[in-house]
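Give me the 3D structure for Very-long-chain (3R)-3-hydroxyacyl-CoA dehydratase.
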Amino acid sequence: MFSAVRRIYLTAYNWTLFFGWLQVFYLAVSTLWNSGHESVYAAVEKPLILAQSAALLEILHSLAGIVRSPVTATLPQVASRLYVTWGILYSFPEIRTHFFVSSLVISWSITEIIRYSFFGLKEAFGSAPSWLLWLRYSTFLMLYPTGITSEVGLIYYALPYLKESGDKFSIRMPNRWNFSFDYYCNAVLVLGFYVPGSPHLYGYMLEQRKKALAKAKTA
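Predicted structure for Very-long-chain (3R)-3-hydroxyacyl-CoA dehydratase (219 residues):
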């Protein structure tokens, strides 16, 4: 009973997110073609925020054991994307017209269209076509670097606006909690985490690729 409910839930989840990211991709590419990179964020904002925020459930999936992905791999990827989506792009409109927004959104959406369709088919039918498996475990070789570069670039270019914002999202002392938090320094710290975090996650995905493709050859 639990297995059947799990399968139905994950099938619905993956296909819902597939269509969400497909909408993001279509809007991003058509807007980039017709209006230029300056207009991309305005076109994709709502579906992008919805699709990316839904990824919070993937952390819960890992913690609950609904999926096999370790939370150590899921958490940093989801957290970094949510930070860029909400903490940078949504909170600081000044950088929404940067060309990194286009490369970010297109990299994310292609990755997720492939990923969610792959797992959607696996949950619904028990397997996915070999060509889709290859795309699932190969396209990140190019899309992960472009996505990470775009994330880091947007955070970096947002730093002056974070500094100018003063107390926005910051907590100053004295206060009843005797606690302080500086949003600008936090952004610098986040950039620092990308240095060890990005190679670690990339290496993990390379290992997963090797295992998945080797298993497919012997199947």
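The mean pLDDT is 93. Let me know if you want a second pass.
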